[in-house]
Structure formats: C-alpha cells, structure tokens
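dude i think i finally got it to work??
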Amino acid sequence: MDQFRRIQTGKTGDVHMVAFKDAKILDDTVLDEIKTELNTLIGKVPGPDVLLDFGNVQFMSSAMLGLLGQLHRKISGGKGRLKMCNIRPEIFQVFKLTSLDKLFSIHKDAPTALATFN
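look at this
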C-alpha cells in the first residue's frame, strides 16, 4: 500500500481504492498535490479500475470537478473504469447541476460500487 499525503490507497481485487484525506479540497496547493498523487497511482498500471471514495470530503472547489474530468479521460483512454462513492448530498447536487452525474458512475457506498466492477 502506497502512502500519500492527500489520498489513502488500497486495493480490492484489481480495483484501486482511493479515499481523500482532506475534508476541504478548496486550495490550489491541495488540488495540485491530489493531482500529482493520483497521476502517480494510475501511472503505474495501464487502464486501471479506480474507485474514489469521497466519504471524508465536506467541501470541494469547482477546480476539483475539472481534475475529476481529466482523471476520467485518462483512465477511460487506457480502458480502465472510474467510479465514485460516498458523495455527500450537497456535493452531489453540484454534480447534478453540471450534469457530471451522467458522466461519472456514482454509487452510494464502496460495496455497491465495487460490485459494479465485475
């Protein structure tokens, strides 16, 4: 298991599990660190399956949405799958308003999301 400053990682089968450590992802410095850490993680394997767990995230900037879009394109381009879980209702509303709920595969919790990778 890799140790990162902004994300916690693990694996369940072939799925890379990523949980965000920060409750607030608002600062550009934090966002840059998350981007670097995610790119380090997914750069190791072509087309990985990744589950992002937002359970700790209470607030995030719109720039984080852009980062998620980049991550989605990178993973999909390598034939991997990106899924998300544990998104708070107030954050999910932003996904709905921007129609990103149609782009991303969003699930209630990790077990539900993991079952869809099969």
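The helical segments are 28-42, 62-77, 89-97, 100-103, 110-115.
im so relieved honestly
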